[in-house]
Design goal:
Helix content: 25-40%
Structural class: alpha+beta
């Protein structure tokens, strides 16, 4: 398993545009082998004493934080998709992303613990 995580500042009035954009992107990523995608809209993001999610992405007062992660089988799967993304025009939808892509934070992680269960 391999995890890709994001912290994204999204203008509050663009929630529906973000939701549509993320659904389209998720469908493509799942087609390319992503196992799971979670997109979570800010509900309670406290201001920290030294740092926090909002400061990390220089969020403006009118922006909300999206915390997102993708679960991939392994890093090789993700690497193959990153190459495909530059060649597949479906990854560049009309209108572009509904947020400032220069301020998002992205990172890739090799899990050291997972309590996930396949049980229903």
């Amino acid at each position: 398993m391999y995890i890709v995580g994001f912290v994204i500042p999204v203008p509050e009035d663009r929630l529906e545009h973000y939701r549509l954009w993320s659904r389209q992107a998720a469908a493509l990523l799942m087609e390319y082998g992503c196992l799971e995608i979670v997109e979570a809209w800010e509900d309670h993001v406290p201001v920290g004493k030294h740092t926090d999610f909002r400061r990390a992405v220089r969020a403006r007062p009118e922006e909300k934080i999206v915390f997102s992660w993708q679960k991939w089988p392994d890093r090789a799967s993700l690497d193959a998709v990153e190459k495909a993304m530059s060649e597949d025009p479906r990854f560049d939808p009309p209108g572009g992303a509904p947020f400032d892509q220069k301020r998002l934070i992205m990172g890739c992680f090799a899990p050291i613990l997972s309590t996930a269960s396949d049980r229903a």
